[in-house]
Design brief:
15 helices, mainly alpha, 0% strand
């Protein structure tokens, strides 16, 4: 039996401060992640830890920041799902801020690391303070709480056992703990924050979810988003750590597919929990999406133009890759699973061109999912660059330009959504009143 919600009641109360703090967090995290990833020599740790930190910076820029920004935009429209994604993205950035501060030796980015940590912590606090947790909890209807709770408890238990299996034997030994060798660290910040904060908090929140308490719905909804992002982030940082020092036992490329699979598995409980939230936005019906499709303001047409150009470029690039590798040497594929450029070309067509043209078709035809298509096409373009950089391990000027194009698509989708929200809805006759019979001779008119 689900919880009943009060229709029309927003879940964010006076959320201006939350938007300001999280907006600053998005800018700071993007800058910190980019500088960590791109600036050579800024990190002073061991090779494997430097590689892992660069991978973490890339994950923050291409996963955490886009999810945070898009969630904030959708939450402004009243989406309850977006509020949970917003909180989960903040948790992801907060978790990795601790690693930037305590798992990398002092460097020129230290103050930026501290600012990122502070803004993430304050973002979480302000967002929870300005969220009507009771109203959001009541929005869940027929949620599969028992199945989701069991899944989260299994993750928490396995995580705790994995860390304790390394810590407990080290307590009986002398000298440096085995899990610290090659890291250059005096202690392990992952173990510290997991065992002291995250795992106990998630375990308690899961118990609240089991009892169908509002705080359980909110915290576990955000936790599922955070776990998906963190699993994908670990896949990236393990890949970069191993690439930086293949002989080190600290990072392993074999963990990349394992954590990528875990991120995909995490989508299942998140889907079933989020599906129990109402469609559209709180206090608004699904017609809000139709209004966006019907009112194609100037950002919509600029977005459509970008989708056309980038989609055409994707077709040209994909075909060129499949034909002759676009002039790129086969040596670039040496450390990848590919032996020719044919499959990457097909992936470019499927992963970039198809989503761009699909979103374009939705906008031109005025379909209700046009806005979502614009957001997803932009996010997909950013993720395409993330995958490209992860697999090829090569960087050139077009990569940030293409990622910026994806971010611009997301921006114009948000501007379109904002413009439509400012347009008053068209009054439509009430169907029930239009079909009601006129007062008869025996009925009193008023």
């Amino acid at each position: 039996m689900g919880l009943a919600r009060e229709p029309g009641r927003p879940v964010l109360r006076r959320a201006g401060a939350a938007y300001w703090v999280s907006g600053l967090l998005a800018v700071t995290a993007a800058a910190n992640g980019l500088l960590t990833f791109l600036v050579p020599g800024v990190l002073h740790g061991t090779a494997v830890m430097n590689g892992s930190a660069r991978g973490t910076g890339l994950a923050v820029v291409l996963l955490g920041v886009p999810v945070l920004a898009v969630s904030m935009a959708l939450a402004r429209a009243g989406s309850p799902r977006a509020v949970l994604c917003w909180l989960g993205a903040v948790g992801f950035v907060l978790y990795n801020s601790v690693l930037f501060v305590f798992a990398t030796p002092f460097n020129q980015l230290f103050l930026l690391d501290v600012a990122m940590l502070a803004l993430a912590a304050w973002s979480a606090g302000v967002l929870l303070w300005q969220t009507d947790v009771a109203a959001l909890g009541r929005s869940f209807t027929d949620a599969p709480v028992r199945g989701v709770a069991v899944y989260v408890w299994v993750i928490v238990t396995l995580n705790a056992l994995a860390w304790l299996s390394r810590i407990v034997p080290a307590l009986a030994g002398s000298g440096q703990a085995a899990f610290l060798r090659g890291t250059g660290l005096p202690t392990h910040p992952v173990y510290v924050q997991d065992l002291a904060l995250w795992l106990p908090l998630i375990a308690v929140a899961t118990a609240w979810l089991w009892r169908r308490r509002a705080w359980g719905y909110v915290l576990i909804g955000a936790t599922l988003v955070m776990l998906i992002l963190e699993s994908a982030g670990i896949a990236v940082d393990q890949w970069y750590g191993h690439a930086a020092d293949p002989a080190s036992q600290v990072a392993s490329a074999a963990l990349t597919p394992a954590f990528a699979l875990l991120a995909l598995i995490g989508l299942v409980p998140a889907y079933y929990l989020f599906r129990s939230l109402p469609d559209g936005t709180l206090g608004r019906s699904g017609a809000g999406l139709v209004r966006v499709a019907e009112h194609r303001t100037w950002p919509a047409w600029i977005l459509a133009g970008m989708l056309l150009l980038i989609g055409a470029a994707g077709v040209f690039g994909g075909v060129s890759l499949m034909r002759d590798g676009f002039g790129m040497p086969l040596g670039w594929l040496h450390q990848t699973p590919f032996t020719s450029w044919a499959l990457p070309g097909a992936a470019l067509l499927i992963g970039v061109a198809v989503p761009q043209f699909t979103a374009l078709g939705l906008i031109v035809s005025g379909q209700r999912w046009a806005l979502a298509g614009g957001y997803l096409a932009g996010l997909g373009l950013v993720l395409w660059i993330a995958v490209q950089m992860l697999v090829l391990q090569r960087y050139f000027i077009m990569q940030p330009a293409i990622a910026a194009a994806g971010a611009t698509e997301i921006l114009f989708a948000w501007l379109w959504q904002r413009d439509v929200r400012a347009v008053p809805p068209v009054s439509r006759p009430n169907a029930s009143s239009s079909t009601a019979p006129a007062p008869g001779r025996g009925e009193a008119g008023t």
